[in-house]
Amino acid sequence: MAADILAHPGFADPVHDRQVSFRALLQALARPGTFHPVAVPPDPPAPLAPATAAVLLTLVDGEAPVHLTGPFAALGAWVAFHTSGTEVAAGDAAFVLADALPDFASLKAGTDEIPESSTTVILQMPALEGGPPLTLRGPGIETTRDFGPCGLPDDFVARWAANRRLYPRGIDLVLCAGSLVAGLPRSTTVTPPR
After folding, report:
1. Parallel, antiparallel, or unpaired for β 145-147 and 95-98?
2. pLDDT at 1
3. Residue 112's beta-bridge partner residues?
């Protein structure tokens, strides 16, 4: 296991690369549906996309535990070694890494007093373009923005609407593909195109 961890290093320049990636994530969440490049580690372990690995290395730490689902479940040692983060149950996690949209009801939605205590889902996508078109509205969007990531479930609009109704509580999404990230904060309204 140690050989596998060392075979897949973290960031080449941890301080600089975390800063670059953190700024990209802030921009992605401030401007929903826009794409932002992150600093990627040189050789992330499969099946992590470079952007997904960068998001984990940037956000997860000893105070922000993660839950790894599906094909990512075997990466706990790599994540722990490079982030000092611990793996916890989905309902206790600050971040959930998935390749399919999890059931939001099983995650922390925060409270009215502390909405930021909710879970952020890091969702690895096949691509951030090429999927069914969606229309985004809300903070960070002047009027509307078209967005069509590939790999969202058919019932995404309904599930997101239920999440949006919890505001200021609710789940935020960070979508990753290749070396790019995009954000969907809980304040964003998502509808099919008119």
Report:
1. unpaired
2. 45
3. none
Residue type, position 120, single letter: T
In contact, 63 and 86? CB cutoff 8 Å: no
Q: Is 42 left (phi over 0), alpha (psi -120 to 50) or beta?
A: alpha
Domain parsing of the chain, residue ranges: 2-191
Provide the pLDDT confidence category of residue 76 given band limits of 50, 70 and 90.
very high
124 token code pair: 């690895």
CA 53 to mean position of chain CA atoms: 10
Write down the residue that tokens 């069914």 correspond to.
Answer: 132
Average pLDDT, rounded, for the chain:
95
Q: Which fold has domain 2-191?
A: Rossmann fold (3.40.50)
Q: In b/e form, how buried is each residue of 34-59, taking b as 16+ CB within 10 angstroms?
A: bbbebbbbeebbeebbbbbbbbbbbb
Produce one character per residue of 129-152: b if its CB has 16 or more CB atoms within 10 Å, e if not.
eebeebbbebebbeeebebbbebb
Convert the pLDDT of each residue in 116-147 to its tens digit.
999 999 999 999 999 999 999 999 999 999 99
Rounded alpha-carbon distances, angstroms, from residue 52 to 22, 23, 121, 177: 13, 15, 11, 7
